[in-house]
Write a structure and sequence with these properties.
Blueprint lengths: L2 E2 L32 E4 L6 E2 L2 E2 L3 H7 L4 E5 L6 H10 L9 E3 H12 L4 E5 L2 H10 L2 E2 L6 E4 L7 H12 L3 E4 L3 E5 L5 E3 L1 H12 L5 E2 L5 H11 L6 E5 L2 H11 L2 E5 L5 E3 L2 H11 L4
Parallel strand pairs: 2-5, 2-14, 5-6, 7-8, 7-9, 9-10, 10-13, 14-15, 15-16
Antiparallel strand pairs: 1-11, 3-4, 11-12
Amino acid sequence: MYVAMTDIGPLSSGNRTSLVPGFSPAVRSPWHDPAWHYIIDLDGTLIRDGAAMPGAAALLEALHGRYAIVSNNSTDTAVGMARKLRKMGLVVAPAQLVLAGEMTVNWLWQTSPSARVYLLGSPVLRRYAQRVGCRLVEQNPDVVLLALDRAFNYRKLLLAVNVLRTGARLIVTNPDLSHPGGNGRRVPETGTLLAAVLACADVRPVSIIGKPSDVLFREGLRRLRAKPAQTLMIGDNPATDAAGAVAMGMSYLLLGTGPEAEAETPAQLLETWGTRHTHL
């Protein structure tokens, strides 16, 4: 399970699904109901520690043409991630990937094309921002764009904190403190870096683009040409996947080992739904 910098109360049981409302009883399993679409998380739902989770390929095959992968990943572009997924045995087109880092860069360029941007992030995200047209600087920025930066250090923290204290705006790709790794490991995420910045900058982010914000969800729905009421979110994180789905009026289903999880892996999910939702 992810840990995110999001303080939410108990989620409405009416939006959690083990029996999704609205599926046709004449359809032998929900995966075969053509009226429904699916927004699927990536890390902890389809992949973990650089490998596909059991049943991930079968799940995507079952939902072929009716899903978008919506992820708080802030280090990759959709084109690059599609290549990585193919090496894991998951054939996904770039257009089916909605990633927080790429979406944040696009949003910033569209809303503030002339901004001077201090970008804390991966080399891939920096190159993408430059291709889009963002003006990346380290002196006198208008915006600090914070993403997952595995080369984050004291020098970068010092610079970010002080330009924020003198008026720069803080834009954040995603609030996750961590994401799941292999063998029970926890991998620090953007939210951990954000906590360090907020501890001494005395500012709040102007915008956080990733889940549970509606920005990625709306883009996924747009690409699917789908309505929230007939779209199911499949994820692993109550604080981002579930909370965001509830806010959008979508049903959700969680994987993992937590108390709300329907199954631990996509393979178990397909097996569970295949037995529970048989034609009557």
